[in-house]
Design goal:
The protein is mainly α. It is about 75% helix and about 0% strand. Helix 7 runs antiparallel to helix 8. The longest helix is centred in the C-terminal third of the chain and has 107 residues.
Length: about 500
């Protein structure tokens, strides 16, 4: 709210700068006002107490007069003219010089605002023209890129079609070799079952004999060799059986890629012919922020090229596969026969080692029993010695106890007293030494008993191992398929 008579300036364009001083010096203001503007005699009603005029007149006669706001508080009620309205109680905040200066400021702000608006209109017009030309150029570039993309898709469609026709004729050449390889693979099951059965029986060995010895290594190697032969057979069988599947897989990839190319060709061709006036053109807000792409031009071309190369590789491998299968059958039969003989030789050596170890354990067991007997005799002698020393300790302690009852001055620390004390310590030390030796002997006895139990257990383990290797394992390794069956002729 502004009072009547106050200066009001427009602030919608630029805010009015704050005044540096509320009121300039009185003498300076009056002189500048008379010099800059013509003087007009203003007739004021005598009924209105026009405070500024009164203030200026008093200030002219008294230059050292302080601010009006302070002196006005000292004016008595009787010296003031009667008030007509509330407006007469307000003091003017600005001088005429401030008022003219405010108008000039508003004029300058108006000129500046109009200049900025005019410059904005010119720049906006130029911007609209520039962006229109840029948008047309961008759309033309996009249309050209879509046309090039359509040509690229057409080229790869023709390449895929040519390779697909070649792949269809490469699907029926592995039937006889496949059947031969299947028969050989079936014959490897019997040797594999024998080797696994031997490993299963040897898992029933006990204690320390459950060792990873040469026989087990050779058995595991035999199993690995048979499994390796089976894997290679299965691999080649898969190549023989699955060559058709591989060809079909390659064919499926080519057909799928061809279908995708045809669909992409239709979409890109439609996009290539779209114009601003075409039907179906609409807004799809935010579609530019959705990146649903999964490839770049290099990976896109490489994907189709890889499919074609894979198809060519499958067709080239089909001619080489039959010779590989024939060589594989001969090699696997020789490997299984050689390992079978090596395992049998390892079994023979291991059985001899186990029998020799069993005999040595029996010898050590006899010696251990003899040592246990001797240790038990020693323990008895130590116990007897401790019992004898206990009587000496009792006598010495009894003497000391009796001598504590001597009266008064007779409680003398004489030679007899000192010797009795030393005797107690010596006998007690002797008993403790014998007890320590008794504990050592008992520990030794326990160790010998433990050794005896270990040797007895080990003897039973060796007997069990001989039974497993000699009877169970060698008993099942008496038959093996002949070479002709292993190569698939029977």
């Amino acid at each position: 709210m502004e009072f009547t008579g106050s200066t009001s300036t427009a602030t919608y364009a630029h805010p009015r700068p704050p005044p540096t001083n509320l009121l300039p010096a009185i003498g300076t203001m009056a002189s500048s006002y008379r010099d800059r503007f013509p003087h007009y005699n203003l007739t004021h009603s005598l009924s209105l107490p026009w405070r500024p005029s009164t203030y200026y007149r008093v200030a002219s006669s008294s230059p050292t007069l302080g601010p009006y706001c302070v002196r006005s508080q000292r004016v008595s009620e009787s010296s003031m003219l009667p008030f007509v309205s509330n407006r007469t109680t307000l003091v003017t905040r600005y001088t005429p010089d401030d008022w003219y200066r405010s108008n000039l400021t508003n004029y300058l702000e108006s000129n500046t605002s109009r200049h900025n608006s005019e410059r904005l209109r010119v720049d906006t017009s130029r911007l609209i023209q520039d962006k229109y030309q840029q948008t047309r150029k961008t759309q033309a570039d996009s249309t050209q890129n879509l046309g090039e993309r359509v040509n690229d898709i057409g080229f790869w469609k023709s390449e895929i079609t040519h390779e697909l026709d070649a792949m269809i004729g490469e699907t029926n050449e592995q039937t006889d070799v496949k059947k031969k390889l299947e028969r050989a693979l079936m014959e490897t099951e019997a040797p594999l079952q024998v080797a696994r059965e031997c490993l299963f029986h040897r898992e029933k060995r006990m204690g320390i004999d459950l060792v990873h010895d040469e026989v087990e290594v050779d058995l595991l190697t035999e199993v690995d060799i048979i499994l390796s032969c089976q894997e290679r057979m299965k691999l080649h069988l898969d190549k023989a059986i699955a060559q058709l599947a591989a060809n079909r897989a390659s064919q499926h990839e080519l057909e799928k890629d061809l279908a995708d190319k045809q669909r992409a060709h239709q979409i890109d061709d439609k996009c290539h012919h779209l114009r601003n006036t075409s039907d179906g053109v609409s807004y799809f807000c935010g579609v530019e922020r959705v990146d649903a792409t999964v490839s770049v031009p290099e990976s896109w071309a490489k994907f189709t090229d890889d499919n074609i190369l894979r198809s060519q590789k499958e067709r080239a491998a089909s001619a080489k596969l039959r010779d590989d299968i024939q060589n594989l059958l001969v090699v696997t039969a020789n490997e299984m026969w050689n390992q079978f003989n090596k395992v049998n030789l390892a079994f023979t050596n291991r059985i001899a080692e186990t029998a020799d170890a069993k005999n040595k354990i029996q010898i050590h067991l006899g010696k251990t029993l003899q040592e246990i007997f001797q240790t038990e005799m020693t323990i008895e002698s130590i116990k007897k010695a401790i019992k004898e020393k206990s009587a000496f300790l009792k006598v010495a302690q009894t003497r000391l106890d009796e001598r504590t009852r001597r009266p008064n001055i007779e409680l003398c620390r004489d030679t007899a007293q000192l010797r009795l004390v030393n005797e107690v310590y010596e006998v007690d030390h002797t008993i403790q030494t014998l007890q320590q030796r008794l504990r050592d002997a008992e520990n030794t006895l326990q160790s010998l008993v433990h050794t005896k139990a270990t040797l007895e257990h080990d003897l039973a383990v060796k007997a069990n191992t001989l039974y497993i290797d000699q009877e169970k394992c060698m008993g099942v390794r008496k038959s093996f398929p002949n070479t002709l069956r292993l190569v698939g002729f029977c």
